[in-house]
Amino acid sequence: MVRVKPFAALRPPRNLVTEIAAPPYDVVNSREAKAMAGEKSLLHITRPEIDFDPIADEHSQPVYDKAVENFRSWQEKGWLVRDPKPCYYVYAQTMDGRTQYGFVLCAHCDDYLNGTIKKHELTRKDKEDDRMIHVRIQNANIEPVFFAFKHNSGLEEILSQVAAGPSEYRYTDSNGFGHEFWTVTDDALIGRISDLFTCEVDAFYIADGHHRSAAAARVGAEKAALKAGRTGEEEYNWFMAVAFPESQLRIIDYNRVVKDLNGLSHKQFLELLSEDFEIVAKGPEAFRPEHLHNFSMYLGGQWYSLTARPGRYDDSDPIGVLDVTILSNLVLDRILGIHDLRTDSRIDFVGGIRGLGELSARVDSSEMEVAFALYPVSMKQLTDIADSGNIMPPKTTWFEPKLQSGLAIHTLD
Fold first, then answer.
1. Closest CA to 317 of 385, 393, 382, 395
2. Fewer CB atoms < 10 Å away: N or C end of the chain?
3. Between 210-226 and 125-138, two packed helices, what is the crossing angle to 10 degrees?
4. How far apart are CA 302 and CA 192, in angstroms?
5. Residue 61, SS3 per DSSP
6. What is the DSSP string of 344-402?
7. Phi, psi (5° rounding) for residue 166?
8. Helix (H) or strand (E) holding 107
C-alpha cells in the first residue's frame, strides 16, 4: 500500500496566483521561459537562467545560486506564504470541457525505491542529476510529480465533496486550460484521506515526472544517510505529487520527426515501408491515425496512412504491442538506422498538443524530412506495463493538461 501525508505548503496569496503560476520547467525552453515570465513568475525559480543577459547555462553554479536567491526572495516578499498547518489539497484541471480532479499530497521516497510507486519510463542520469541539485539546494520540491491511482470510490467521493465547496484559486491559463484549487483543513477528512490511501491503494503510477521522482528519492536517501536515528517520518523522506484517479486521465499522441531518410530517396523509402505496412496516400490534408497499429506519415508534402501488416507485431507482448515499438522496430531502426531514441540527434519528438500542423511545418521548412503521428497509448497499457515491471520506449506518453507549478511547494524541513 502507498504511504501519503498532508503537508503545510508554501503557496501564493490568492491575488497573486496568476502571476506566480507557471508551466513545468521541462515544457518550455529557456527562450520561451524568458519571454513569458513576468516579475513574480515561478519560472525565475525553476528556470533562473532567464535572469541573465544573455541567458546563462542552466547547469552553471551562478544559475543554481540565482534559483536559491529567488526562492528566498519570493518568501521574504510574501509572494509565497506557508499554510499554518499540514493539509491535503485538491487540484482540478479543465481542458476541452473535461475536468480531472486530483489530491495534492506527499508520497514517501521509500515507496519509489521499493516499487510501490511504479515507473513506465527510463530516466537519464544527467536530467536526474540536474533535478537533484535543484531539490538539494532549495531543500524543497518546487514542482509536483503527476501520479495516477486505480479506482477507489471513497477517494473519488471525497474529491467530489471537496470540489463542491468554495475554492482557493480559480483561473484560466494562456492555453485556455482551467485550474482550480481547494485546501482540505478538516482534521477528520484529512485522516480519512490518509486512511483510504494507506489501506486501499496498492500503488501509484508515475504519469509525468520520472526525473523529479528519481531526484526526490535520491535526495531523501542522501539526507537519510547523514542523519543518525532516522525514523522514516522526517520531512525529507517525502516528496510532493498530485494523484489523480486513472479513469479521469487522458493520454494524447507523442509523435516523431526525423531529419533524413538514411540516404534513401522518397521512392526507395516507400518501397521499403510497403514490406511491413499497407500504405494509402491521403493527399495534403492532415490525416490522424484511426486505431492501434495505424500511423500517419508526412513526406514530400503528402500525408499517408500506414497500417502495420499482421504478423509484424506481437499483441501478447505488453511492449511489442505498442505502436512506438512497432514504429521503432520496423521503421526507425530497420530502415532509418536510428537505434537509440534517447541519444540519436537525427530524431525529435513532438507532443500531440501541438497538433499535426507542427509535424508538417517542420518537414515543409526542410528542418526535417519525414514525420510520423501515432495513435495514443491507453491508461490500461501504461498500468499493465508498469505492473509487469516493464519499461516503455522513450517518449511514449504525453499527458495534457500539464500540472501548473507554483500552486503549492513542499519544503524538506
1. 385
2. C
3. 60
4. 56
5. helix
6. -TTEEEEEGGG-HHHHHHHHHTTS-SEEEE-PPPPHHHHHHHHHHT--PPSS--EESSP
7. -70, 140
8. strand 98-108
Among 205, 19, 240, 231, smallest CA distance to 120 is for 205
| 113-116-118 Cα angle (round to 5) | 85
Q: What is the pLDDT along the chain (413 residues), one digit of tens a residue?
A: 999 999 999 999 999 999 999 999 988 999 999 999 999 999 999 999 999 999 999 999 999 999 999 999 999 999 999 999 999 999 999 999 999 999 999 999 999 999 999 998 878 788 889 899 999 999 999 999 999 999 999 999 999 999 999 999 999 999 999 999 999 999 999 999 999 999 999 999 999 999 999 999 999 989 988 877 788 889 999 999 999 999 999 899 999 999 999 999 999 999 999 999 999 999 999 999 999 999 999 999 999 999 999 999 888 888 888 999 999 999 999 999 999 988 899 999 998 888 999 999 999 999 999 999 999 999 988 998 999 888 888 788 889 899 999 999 999 98
Using an 8 Å Cβ cutoff, are 305 and 280 in contact? Answer: yes
Q: For residue 345, what is its C-alpha cell?
A: 540527434
Write the single-letter amino acid at 225. A
Q: Are 212 and 143 in contact (CB under 8 A)?
A: yes
Cα 225 from Cα 229, distance rounded (Å): 10
Give the three-class secondary structure for 217. Answer: helix
Q: Residue 79: phi, psi to the nearest 5?
A: -80, -20
Q: Under a CB-based contact definition with an 8 Å cutoff, are residues 253 and 375 in contact?
A: yes
CB of 238 within 8 A of CB of 5? yes
Q: Which residues pair with 297 in a beta bridge?
A: 304, 372
Residue type at 90? Answer: V
171 DSSP β-pair partners: 179
Backbone CA torsion sign across 282, 285, 286, 291:
negative
Buried/exposed code over 385-403 (b: 16+ C-beta within 10 A; e: otherwise): bbeeeeebbbbbbbbbbbb
Give backbone dihedrals phi and psi of 227, rounded to 5 degrees, phi first: -110, 125
Residue 232: CB atoms within 10 A of its CB come to 12
